[in-house]
Design a protein that fits this description.
This protein has 2 domains: 135 residues, 2-Layer Sandwich (Beta-Lactamase); 169 residues, Rossmann fold (3-Layer(aba) Sandwich). It is built from 11 helices and 18 strands. Strand 7 and strand 8 form a beta hairpin. Helix 7 runs parallel beside helix 8 and helix 8 runs parallel beside helix 10. The radius of gyration is 21 Å and the shape is globular. The C terminus is likely disordered.
Amino acid sequence: MTREVSKLKYVYDILTPKIRNAVMTIPEIERDRIQEIRLRRGKKLTVTAFSKEYFLNCGGRLMNNPGDSIDITSEDIETVYQRAFQNSLHSFHREIARGYITVQGGCRVGFCGTAILNPAKDYAVESVKNISSVNIRIAREIIGSGREIYSRCFSEGPTSLLIAAPPAGGKTTVLRDLSRLLGETYRVSLIDERNELAATINGEAQNLIGAMTDVFNSYNKYEGIMTAVKVMTPQILICDEIGGREDYQALQYALNSGVKIVASCHASSIDEVKKRQYISKLIKEKAFDSCAVLGTGPMCGKIVSFSSFGLKNA
């Protein structure tokens, strides 16, 4: 049985009073389904709920048209942006360059504006100024979402598993719950590159990730995997969205060290998984014992196809 936990209350402190009051006034049945709160400079406040974007007025009414919805000012943008960074922008250079930060409760504040590029580093984004839009994504834990995969794949002990899904297929949600389930029995190292899985704040995970789970927060996958194997001796290593050459090299090292891997990738089918260059190599080298493909929409987070030993002989 699954249980969904919304973290909306954790973003109230970073909102301006007019936005906070409007959100808190939304009828509870709709408020509990809010996925995003979007602020666009000089435009109208919107929220995403039930997978649709609505305009929001001061009375907490969700509307299809702008009507009397709340105007977003430069002050609203600046206040929310500064509060997300605890009024200490200089302390979060990496997060600013990436375009998002994780705040209390595991909610993510993403933003865009004018990029400042570094010509010495192939014009990589070094910072962002003149913030024009802020998107607050409300974190949700779905306790029990990993139970189907856990029962199917781990009933007899640790195994290496690849989870594939298209965007909005629930990969991260399922991985998080698998960490919780596996971390109650096994030593788990969680490579949380974007801080989406554990949602660590000041060294403490905001989400339930298992009693024996060690979190490598904001490490890139290569460094996180290599370090985890060397210093934490995990039985199972969990990471999200693999696919690159460095991921392949690091996962090879982990597998050669006897560590089981639970990882995810973007793909809509097992055939599509096999077309991914480095994932295909891992499959051919028998890195994964099985692959579960998740669906979208009503099947989000649920297995729509599964391959076991067939993958090993791909």
